[in-house]
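User: I'm designing a mutation panel for PD-(D/E)XK nuclease family transposase and want to avoid disrupting the core. Could you give me a predicted structure to guide residue selection? Please restate the sequence first so the numbering is unambiguous.

Assistant: Good idea. Sequence first, for numbering, then the predicted structure tokens:
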Amino acid sequence: MKNFKDLTLTDDFMFSKVMRKKDICKEFLELILDKKIEKIEYIEAEKTLNIDYDKRGVRLDVFLQDETTVYNIEMQTSNFANIPKRSRFYQGVMDVSSLEKARDFNDLKESYVIFVCTKDLFGYNEPIYEFITYSKKHDIIYGDEANKIIVNTSAEISNETKLGKFINYLKNNVVSDDFTSSINDTINEIKLDSETRGEYMVLEAKMMDAKQEGIIMAYVNQIRTIREKESISIDEALIKLYIPEKYWDAVKKELLNE
């Protein structure tokens, strides 16, 4: 992970913090969706939605609503291949979460799942890709009011437009108008906040622990495989597979506890 002082808007942690500022988030939505939004409220920051039938939780970085619409905004700098399926899953859990049991399906709000991506997923150099459900044969809009938006920050776009200035800021950290200036000032304020810095350090430690655990389990699986084929001890397998000594105790503990 990056050092806290080096974080930019394209880092997931910083993006979610900046989007917690209502005026910035509202202006971002108006820019991306090209519509006026009167008022927004946050449902819950970094909300985890648990759906009984699926038994799987999903963390929504920025989950908010206005009177008629719910929005989920995510920053994405890697793992681009599964974004369409992820947006489908997010859409489903948002709907289940927002619709109370006693209410009718007609009360479902229009929804937007928005991914801000640092890669052009579709290759048309469009800064914004918008997807809705419709009939391919008759070009009929289905009317489920489920929208998926992909913001392509790698798009080549004129810096003379507000959208172009925003995308240029994402790519190059160049402040060129009031909106990007407001974002930049907010980032600098966040970096001075000791509580947020501590939160980031805790997250960093958790991710390092998860990475370490993943490495250990990979080595454990390698040893299991080789011992199924050859009658050798754990110590012999550790040496034969050139597993670094710093992992030996943890790997052996995992294997001996089976």
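For picking mutation sites, this is relevant: The radius of gyration is 23 Å. The beta strands are 41-42, 47-51, 56-60, 62-65, 69-76, 110-117, 128-131, 146-152.
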